[in-house]
Amino acid sequence: MTLYSNKRSRPQIVVIGGGTGLPVILKAFRRQNADITAVVTVADDGGSSGIIRDYINVVPPGDIRNVLVALSNLPEIYQKIFQYRFNSKDQFFSGHAIGNLIIAALSEMNGDGIFNAVQELSKMMKIDGHIYPVANEPLILHAVFKDGTELAGEAEITAADKTIDHVWVSSAENKQPRAVPEVIDAIMHADQIVLGPGSLFTSILPNLMISNVGQALCQTNAEVVYICNIMTQKGETEHFTDADHVQVLHQHLQKNFIDTVLVNTEPVPRNYLDHQKYDEYLYQVKHDFNGLRSQGCRVISDNFLELRDHGAFHNGSQVVDELMRLTSRPLSWIENEFN
């Protein structure tokens, strides 16, 4: 790893993921002096995204919509309109977010996939940075469970409530998917790459299992930082420690490629969580710092917890403050950490 030497005034940071955790980090990054590129999964097949994907064969727009809003500099009213979801009583539009329909329409208008549509929308929504769908076509997530059975489709995999062994992705034509060149270029020229927070098997790994993305992550000179989840997740990471999360990532790419892990050490108060509302939550992730260090990872542990609405989330501002400190520390400081 060639470590960041503070030559650029705006560090180039690539954040890779999907789901609800990615926008939290991106929104906090928007207030920092950094050149941000968000790389977003295209393997979602649930909810409004899944319905749109099935009807017009477009990349699922939900995660992309949330990222666009997180990085948008438009007035709040326009962001709210973009996020508005039609009432369930509106049979024709039931459950669809306006932003999902706009993304799907632009993709169809362009006729050349989701990538150019998102670049046009980025200009319209005054994005300071870059938003790249990881691929220009919808991808299918596959999982092999510990009992040897297999399933395809993110929603089906999550609903199976079985322990996952490993995952991979394919295109609709069952070809090996490739990331768009802009994604690979961003990874190779980044100062820092951030993975997470987000579902390990269904938000983070679908991006990494695209062969040229995984290869780029193993070859980049950037510091690769993993933000470990606060809670274990039903059907994905039950009883996992923080070291178990990292081990799964390393096993999938067959290399110890993660340099630094951010770990929350603040306890979640008993009886605070609403397990009906957040039914994927199980237990707080346990710590295994020796296990992390044995995989070559530097560990940064702190209170990164934000409690709201009876759920446990990462405090985006505190996480991003730490990430920015990592980019600005002198090379000698980081070298001393490893020696």
Structural commentary:
Helix 1 packs across helix 13, helix 2 packs parallel to helix 5 and helix 5 crosses helix 6. Strands 3-2-1-7-8-10-12 form a seven-stranded parallel β-sheet, with helices on both faces. The protein is built from 14 helices and 14 strands. It is globular and about 50 Å long. The longest helix has 13 residues. The chain has 339 residues and is of the alpha/beta class. Strand 4 and strand 5 form a beta hairpin. The protein has two domains: 235 residues, CofD-like domains (Rossmann fold); 84 residues, no CATH class.
User: How are the strands ordered across the major sheet?
Assistant: 3-2-1-7-8-10-12
Number of helices: 14
Unreliable runs, pLDDT <50, ≥5 residues? 1-7, 46-57, 330-336
CATH level-3 fold name of the largest domain: Rossmann fold
Portion in helices: 25-40%
The computed structural class is alpha/beta
Shape: globular
Distance between the termini: 14 Å
Domain count: the total is 2
Strand content: 15-25%
Task: Please tell me the overall pLDDT.
Answer: 87
Oligomer: single chain
CATH class of the largest domain: Alpha Beta
Largest beta sheet, briefly? Answer: 7 strands, parallel
Radius of gyration: 19 Å
